[in-house]
Amino acid sequence: MTHELKNIVETYQKAEKQGRKCVLATVVALEGSSYRRPGVRMLIWEDGTMIGAVSGGCVEKEVYRQALSVFDKDMPKVMSYDGRYRLGCEGVLYILLEPFRPSKETVNAFWEAVEERIPYHVTSYYVKEFKKEEHFGSVLRFGRQDYPFRKSYTIPETSEYYEQKLHPCFQLILIGAEHDAVQTGTMASLLGWEVTVVVPPNEEKTKSDFPGIHKFLPLEAEQFTEKLDNQTAVLLMTHSYVKDLQFLKQLKDSKPAYFGILGPLRRREKLFNELFEHCPDISMEFIESIYGPAGLELGAETPQEIALSVLSEIVAKVNKKSAVSLREKTGSIHA
Predict the structure, then answer these.
(1) The pTM is what?
(2) Is-contact 25 54, C-beta < 8 A?
(3) Closest by alpha carbon to 62, among 33, 87, 39?
(4) Rounded to whole angstroms, how far apart are CA atoms 296 and 294?
(5) Domain 171-318: which CATH class?
(6) Is the alpha carbon torsion for 259, 183, 168, 216 positive or negative?
(7) What's the half-sphere exposure (Cβ side, CA atoms, 13 Å) at 161?
């Protein structure tokens, strides 16, 4: 969700420079099922431009129509959308529409949290009925400090509220620069992940060869000092046995959410054996956490298919799911 809010704040900053008004739509409650769940947001410009989405595309026109009065009167409102007879989702959405005019202090606090990879909360105050009220609105919360989404907003003493904890953007540390690394980095960036590509200093590729990535680091293994938290995946795909071994030695004390190595099983075992020779005190927990060969069994052959296979395994691992067809699943799709 943080990557979606990043897009919203970036777009707001562009709109502010152009003197354009913005309204933020937030799904704050749901009865039944829906394409997307509470906590999703969409930024709306007066001309109908929309950034983000609150559904699969079927609700947005009505949200814009309802937002017109918020642009006109500068008064927040809650709308509902009953999809039980119009959509396949069979749910009722409650959506908060509020003027979006965060102060510079709020914007700066948000970008600082993003850069420092600090978790935070967003709390939205509303009532579950079609209604306009000045005290409806949302705030960012970092620790005990609140930053409202519009200047001069005061948190109400009594009201329903929806609170959402947001984590740092998921990041992928991609070590390698071959064709499959390019495809993997591009595809991961489309997922909203912050992708850092690490390559040898003498590598001929540059950041421009990896569309959408966040960072490009030309450095040796012993120079790598990036923070690896539980919102980080590491993928080792240098196509060089020596370089893979060097990075394994450098990262042996790390605990990312996922650690994968490209290449066949025999190569992985050879790497582990030599790693034990160089680092006899290495933790078995680290060794057992490594996914190698990385990826799900999809019959992948092309660089694009390999990227899909590996990224799918990362998503499954992070969400603590086994890769099964939804056709075989009983009950709700979402957790």
Answers:
(1) 0.79
(2) yes
(3) 87
(4) 7
(5) alpha beta
(6) positive
(7) 16
- The DSSP symbol for 150 reads B
Neighbouring C-beta atoms of residue 59, cutoff 10 Å: 25
Question: How many other C-beta atoms are found inside a 10 Å radius of the C-beta of residue 308?
Answer: 18
User: Is the distance from CB of 39 to CB of 27 less than 8 angstroms?
Assistant: yes
Give the SS3 label for residue 276.
helix
Rounded Cα–Cα distance for residues 250 and 244 (Å): 10
Taking the CA atoms of residue 201, residue 203, residue 208 and residue 212 in that order, the dihedral angle to the nearest 10 degrees is -80
**Residues ≥6 apart with Cβ < 8 Å to 128:** 29, 78, 80, 94, 160
Omega cis (within 30) before 38 = no
For tokens 């200047």, the residue is 151
What is each CA distance from 45 to 61, 81, 102, 103, 152, in whole angstroms? Answer: 13, 20, 15, 18, 21
Each residue's pLDDT tens digit, 264-314: 889 999 999 999 999 999 989 999 999 989 999 988 889 999 999 999 999
Report the chain (335 residues): mean pLDDT per 10 consecutive residues: 90 92 93 76 91 79 92 93 63 91 94 90 92 92 90 84 91 92 93 93 88 92 90 93 93 93 91 91 91 90 92 93 73 60
Q: What is the longest distance spanned by two Cα atoms in the chain?
A: 71
- Under 8 Å between Cβ of 39 and 60: no
Domain boundaries, the chain: 7-166, 171-318
- CB count in 10 Å sphere of residue 277: 8
